[in-house]
Amino acid sequence: MNRHVFTGETMERVLRKSRDPSLLRVGLNFQPLEGQTLRSRRPWHPRLIGCGAVLLIATLASDIIYANTLLFQWENFSIWLLTSGLVLAALGGVTLALDILSRRIARIDWERFTGLAVAAMLSLLNAFVHSRDAYTAVVPQGIVLSAAVATLLVFIGWRGWSVSARPSSH
User: Fold this and answer.
1) Closest CA to 29 of 54, 10, 48, 55
2) Does the global pTM surpass 0.85?
3) How far apart are CA 48 and CA 44, in angstroms?
């Protein structure tokens, strides 16, 4: 099989010379990669922010399960979800800076950025609350903070996890 990239006129020449009707039936149309780079221009930060947000939202579920069952494994699971979500949020912040420096995004939507920053700060406070011992690690402040973070993240993430400003359509 020929693995070359054909331009439109080269492909037409190959099809005219070919006596194999399957090429015509398949309708191969190879376009050159003119002006395209192999590197994607899509930003990296939404993937990490989205994964971290899922973990922070799941913290609320494990807090509720702990409050209902009092099995200490759920409290441990909550702090692990919370810590992992905060680590991914920090990595999302670093990749946001890299996206800005590499010009993958032009402008920041400051409302979404502020909402995500507030969610991260509340989650950090929640991690300190979860570092307490036993029942008071989750009930009542831990559940309230987890619910506030989950609500905020669901509201912000409704349209995706990118903090790049959408072009205005005037």
Assistant:
1) 10
2) no
3) 7
Integer angstrom CA distances of residue 158 from 16, 29, 64, 104, 150: 52, 38, 23, 22, 12
Alpha helices (H) along the chain: 8-17, 21-26, 45-69, 72-101, 110-130, 141-156
| Two tokens, residue 55 | 């973990």
Nearest to 142 by CA among 155, 118, 123, 156: 123
pLDDT per position as a tens digit, 71-107: 999 999 999 999 999 999 999 999 999 999 998 998 9
Which residue's entry shows tokens 């930003």? 43
Are 130 and 142 within 8 A, CB to CB? yes
At 48-63, the pLDDT tens digits run 999 999 999 999 999 9
